[in-house]
Amino acid sequence: MFRRLSPRYRAGHFAVSCLLCLGFWQLGQGAYIPAKAWVAQELMQRAWRRAKDGDAEVAPWPWADTWPVARLSAKGGDIELIVLEGGSGRTLAFAPAHLSISALPGEAGNSIIAGHRDTHFQFLQFMKRGESIMIEMADGNNYLYQVTDIDVVDSRRGSIVLDTESPMLSLVTCYPFGALEAGGPMRFVVTARMIF
């Protein structure tokens, strides 16, 4: 009734099965970070709504050591992102992050927000001088910034100015976009001045 499969056929079948499993594993690995970023944005939207209702330092999930501080809008509203407080690697895995050493948006000084080039800040590569960036704070204040400079800098040779006379915003991500290896020294910096 059943045919006995030859050892050669079984070996081929096993090899194909292994290759399929490896392929699915690689696809899963490639989708993990973008999927985590999307889920985190949904959880952060809930925390953001609570912060807008007056709750202070609302963690998006129980074990989070960060909280939403702002909402960033760009590209005519096509981009809307919750910004978390603190620029640790753990925070950046979920969302763009306001660096605690910098001014808050709307204050005198430079407000620095960092994000990953392959998820949240992928859109920076398409920004142009003169475009607008809106920052909404939990207290209801909105700050409109206009892009003045777009630069690629070597993080080993320079730094971003923190103390500025007028309120500024710097959006920072790794460069080049689409690089296969993470952690290089180059940074893509979009600088904007507050116009109101």
TrEMBL record:
Query: What InterPro entries does the annotation carry?
Result: Sortase (IPR005754), Sortase_D_1 (IPR041999), Sortase_dom-sf (IPR023365), Sortase_proteobact_type (IPR022445)
What are the alphabetically sorted keywords of the record? Hydrolase
Which Gene3D superfamilies would you find in this protein's record? Sortase
Q: Name one GO molecular function term.
A: hydrolase activity
What protein name is recorded for this chain? Sortase family protein, Peptidase C60
This chain's source organism reads uncultured Woeseiaceae bacterium
